[in-house]
Amino acid sequence: MSGLFDLTGKVALVTGANTGLGQAIAVGLAQAGADIVAVGRSAPDETRKMVVDAGRKLTAITADLGSTEPIARVVADAGPIEILVNNAGIIRRADSTEFTEADWDAVMDTNLKVAFFLSQAFAKGWIAAGRGGKIIQVASMLSFQGGVRVPSYTASKSGLAGLTKALANEWAGKGVNVNAIAPGYFTTNNTEALRADETRSRQILARIPAGRWGLPEDLAGVAVFLASRASDYMHGAVVPVDGGWLAR
Question: Which CA distances in Å does 244 have to 29, 49, 185?
């Protein structure tokens, strides 16, 4: 059974792997045997040490995934990979009556547009070569719910859930698995403002059956599952990892 989750010999590209959820996913995949290609705006020095400590190799590619401009270079520099994790994402908070076009476009470009075109680029290569691959999108609770004061983030993550299903419909028969993880409320930079708001933080914790905020490493297991042979018959799934938030 353990062989189902073994990623030895695989290479996984993880965007936004220098901190938070992306770092935890990259390290979890490395601990399961995969080498890592980390793509982001800053050097993933801490992640590199953790990956090396797990006995694997990390290759860093510096790129700003706020636009599609670097995608061709990222694909070329990454070389052959078998696993793509679209984790890079940003959030902007403001009342919807005051939300700016610039903030709307920045979030949609990073969270949805780049995720699609990076998926497209790697899937093209896999399909042309007649081999499969695994794509894991990092969605959100706001793929299911509306949220407050984050209209572009909600739109982007709802779109990413839909995109996961649309790509699965087209690529499942060609050996490409496309699934998504939907994290709940985790201790990351994106939730810093919520955690700093004593009232909002208390309200959030009161709804989580597990009684705590998620830790980035809580995502490692499901990421390994979706990257491994164990999930070969899963296509188009959006898997909540939320401490029971959606169940309440």
Answer: 24, 32, 11
What's this model's pTM, rounded to 2 decimal places?
0.97
Whole-number average pLDDT of the chain: 97
244 within a domain of the structure (yes/no)? no
Identity of the residue numbered 241: V
**Of the candidates 22, 28, 74, the residue with the CA atom closest to the CA atom of residue 51:** 28
Q: Report whether 134 contacts 83 (CB < 8 A).
A: yes
Instruction: Give residues with Cβ within 8 angstroms of 76, minimum separation 6.
Output: none
Please tell me which residue in 34, 119, 135, 153 is annotated as part of the active site: 153
CA dihedral 201, 205, 207, 209 (to 10 degrees): 170
Query: Does some domain include residue 201?
Result: yes
The yes-or-no verdict on residue 230 having pLDDT over 70 is yes
Which range of residues forms the domain containing residue 14? 2-239
Domain assignment present for 248: no
Condensed to tens digits (0 to 9), the pLDDT of residues 57-89 reads 999 999 999 999 999 999 999 999 999 999 999
Token pair of 176, please? 């490409």
CATH number at residue 235: 3.40.50.720
Is residue 153 annotated as part of the catalytic site, yes or no?
yes
Mean pLDDT check: name the lowest of 74-78, 126-130, 195-199. 195-199
Q: Residue 113 has what DSSP assignment? A: I
CA 104, CA 90: separation in Å to the nearest integer? 11
CA angle in degrees (0–180, nearest 5) for 102-65-168: 105
pLDDT number for residue 194: 85
